[in-house]
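Support request, please re-run this one:
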Amino acid sequence: MRSHSHSSEISTVSPPIRCWLYCIRYKGANMDMISGSCLCGRVEFSVQDAFVYSGYCHCSLCRKASGASGTAIGGIPKALFSITKGEQHLKRFSRSKDTVSCFCRLCGSTLYGEKPATGMVHVRYGALNSSPTRLPQAHMHVASKADWYEISDTLPQFSEFPPGAAPPDPV
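Re-run finished. Output below.
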């Protein structure tokens, strides 16, 4: 398991997230852990079921990385996420100056994206082994969704980011 310096990671996130993370980590909140893995099983991870936000991203980068109409992601402070097996099989790709995609170098499964500037990790919900408590709450980047894909649920849709959301790069 990867070792983390929790106090240094807490200091790298925004003040509201820092407060929330402090309450989760140090005030005794008991959050369940969720495991996840790549397709071949050589990389495994564990994440607290304490996602701050979640949604479906339909930007062209997520579509191309997933080979699908988009991807379901959940944002979590990095201190609540850890690789539990196969870190040597992880490959990292800098998709932009703000986002590093992390995937298994053997089977190609994209597992998460690192957001160094915010201290967040965007976990691909499709890589989780069980359902998180916070389900996707909206569709993002609908203006750049695939022409052939029709959104058929009643979740809110945003052409880019939801109002008030800091515009992170896609996972």
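Helices lie at 6-10, 15-26, 60-66. The chain has a mean pLDDT of 84.
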